[in-house]
Structures are given as C-alpha cells and as structure tokens.
Amino acid sequence: MSAKEKLKFEEAMQQLEEIVTNLERGDVPLEEALEQFQKGVGLSKICKETLQNAEKTLTKIVDENGEETIFENENEEN
Length: 78
What we know:
This protein has helices spanning about 5, 10-25, 30-60; strands spanning about 60, 70. The protein is mainly alpha-helical and about 80 residues long. The chain has one domain: Helix Hairpins (Orthogonal Bundle). It has a two-stranded antiparallel ribbon. α2 runs antiparallel to α3. Pfam families: Exonuc_VII_S.
C-alpha cells in the first residue's frame, strides 16, 4: 500500500487547505507553486475517492436475508 493510500481523509484535507492557503498568498515561486498544485490535485483525488467510497458504503442496507442492497431515496427523481 502506498503512502497516499494510507493518508486519512482529514490529513489529506488539511494538507490541501495548507496548499490552497500558500498558493492564494501569491508569494510562492513558480516552480514550487507548480509542485504544490500537482500535490493538491493528487490530494483532491484522494479525498474524492474516499468520499465516493463512504457514500457507497452508507447507501447500502442489509435486507431481512442478510444481503446488502442499495438504498434508494424515494424522493429522488430519475
């Protein structure tokens, strides 16, 4: 498992927030800004995947037979 896969959601978000803050200041040299931007894109991807996996887990319910089924909101429009 790579270091990125071991990174917790909260840690990734904190690092991403720090990168955004640094880049918003505008005093970061171009090369460093590009590196931070690339790292931020990677962190953003980790956060997105983590949230998608959490959503998939939370939308499953167990029926009376012990089988998992996808929970569908009756108010959703298709």
